[in-house]
Write a structure and sequence with these properties.
The chain has 110 residues and is mainly alpha-helical. It has one domain. 80% of the residues lie in helices and 0% in strands. The chain is built from three helices and no strands. The longest helix has 43 residues.
């Protein structure tokens, strides 16, 4: 008789049983893995926060620049940065929504 067992676990950390085995193999192995995961999450959040601030700053410069150009009488030149900023921000919003729905669908399909 042959028995096959398949165990799957998804997430940033290994399965709790594997963490216990790491502790047996390496002193404080599980604690080191958890700390590594926490540090990575904090680092990623920091990068995402800076990216949001940078994106907001670029969009505001484009919007204000477009408004200033229109106010100075350069209507065509002023519309370009306005349209680019609005289209860029709208594109980011649509992209994020698509990614969110794909993630939700993947969770439902499991």
């Amino acid at each position: 008789m042959v028995q096959s067992v398949r165990v799957e676990f998804s997430g940033p950390l290994p399965h709790p049983q594997l963490l216990a085995q790491y502790n047996e193999a390496v002193p404080n192995g599980a604690d080191r893995i958890v700390k590594l995961t926490e540090n990575q999450a904090a680092h990623r959040q920091s990068i995402e926060s800076r990216a949001q601030i940078f994106t907001f700053a670029i969009a505001m410069v484009a919007l204000v620049g477009g408004i200033v150009l229109i106010a100075l009488g350069d209507s065509a030149e002023g519309l370009v940065p306005l349209i680019a900023a609005i289209a860029g921000l709208g594109g980011l919003f649509v992209y994020r929504e698509i990614q969110t729905h794909r993630g939700e669908k993947a969770l439902l399909d499991e």
